[in-house]
């Protein structure tokens, strides 16, 4: 009986399921609150993200004329399911991953990319011009930020000589923090995460002053709520990965709160300090600089490994 109940508790309540959804809302609130305080504003109340989601879930879902009905309904569900699945391989809240295998890092990266792909398809599925422009920008930004982010997380994996997240997390806790040993990789990972999540100043795909809500212009009600929850969950997972790889690993819940909270504070500062970049600035500059910096970091790691093996 226990063997049957335990996986269900993990998937539905903690560390996945409802607890992860609630954590995503808390992180969204913290991000909005920090940015507001840095801009000398009050910011949202603590329960505002929950109220927004409940309101959206209660609203009518309107499917625009000309959009494929099945695709329109399925894409938000796919995005949320991919984000929730990715959390199974990550040491969320300082708890060991429930599922872990050699190569789960690559699977997690691909699952985290499903949100961006779903957003692009959601915009392309609509005939609205704002949605189409937003979809184009979203998919263009995907190619510019996924590769540098992947290169950034490969650095600690090479140092740990493993593609298993739990082993990389354990190795990071036993050695010098990789933010010191691999500072370029940390910078690329943090900026790449902001680009993946389309946070300011990399929010050209959903610039409300230009294209309303970008790819999600035609979404309302449940679909919009699920997409928002997917982004919140991916924010938690992304911060957890960066903290686990570059900040000495995550060994317990206190580690998780302090390290992911510190990263969120830095991201809020960056959001406040920089104005929105044009899509050509967002894509062109980072594709060249970010990817190049990531490659330089990897080459340095490989050279260090080779020299160490040769010396020994």
From TrEMBL:
GO cellular component annotations of the record: plasma membrane
Membrane-spanning residues: 6-27, 71-93, 105-124, 175-193, 232-250, 256-274, 286-307
Key word Transmembrane present: yes
Source organism: Bellilinea caldifistulae
Membrane topology, as annotated: Multi-pass membrane protein
Transmembrane helix in keyword set: yes
Record's keyword terms, sorted: Membrane, Transmembrane, Transmembrane helix
Name of the protein this chain belongs to: NADH-quinone oxidoreductase subunit H
Major place of residence: membrane
Protein localization: Membrane
């Amino acid at each position: 009986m226990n063997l049957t109940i335990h996986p269900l508790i993990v998937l539905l309540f903690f560390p996945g399921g409802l607890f992860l959804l609630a954590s995503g809302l808390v992180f969204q609130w913290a991000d909005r609150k920090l940015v507001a305080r840095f801009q000398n504003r009050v910011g949202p109340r603590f329960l505002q993200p929950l109220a927004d989601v409940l309101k959206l879930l209660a609203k009518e879902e309107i499917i625009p004329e000309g959009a494929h009905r099945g695709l329109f309904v399925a894409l938000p569900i796919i995005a949320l399911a991919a984000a929730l699945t990715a959390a199974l391989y990550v040491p969320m809240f300082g708890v060991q991953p429930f599922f872990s295998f050699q190569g789960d890092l690559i699977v997690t990266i691909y699952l985290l990319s499903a949100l961006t792909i779903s957003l692009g398809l959601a915009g392309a599925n609509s005939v609205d011009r704002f949605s189409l422009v937003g979809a184009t920008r979203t998919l263009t930004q995907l190619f510019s930020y996924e590769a540098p982010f992947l290169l950034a997380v490969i650095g600690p994996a090479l140092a740990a000589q493993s593609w298993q997240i739990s082993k990389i997390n354990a190795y990071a806790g036993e050695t010098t923090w990789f933010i010191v040993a691999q500072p370029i990789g940390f910078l690329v990972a943090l900026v790449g995460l902001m680009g993946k999540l389309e946070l300011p100043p990399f929010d050209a795909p959903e610039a409300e002053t230009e294209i309303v809500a970008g790819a999600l212009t035609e979404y309302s009600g449940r679909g919009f709520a699920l997409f928002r929850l997917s982004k919140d969950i991916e924010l938690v997972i992304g911060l957890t990965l960066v903290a686990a790889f570059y900040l000495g690993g995550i060994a317990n819940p206190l580690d998780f709160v302090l390290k992911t909270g510190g990263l969120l504070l830095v991201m809020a500062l960056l959001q406040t300090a920089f104005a929105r970049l044009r899509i050509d600035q967002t894509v062109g500059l980072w594709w060249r600089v970010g990817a190049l910096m990531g490659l330089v970091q990897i080459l340095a790691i490989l050279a260090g490994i080779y020299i160490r093996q040769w010396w020994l």
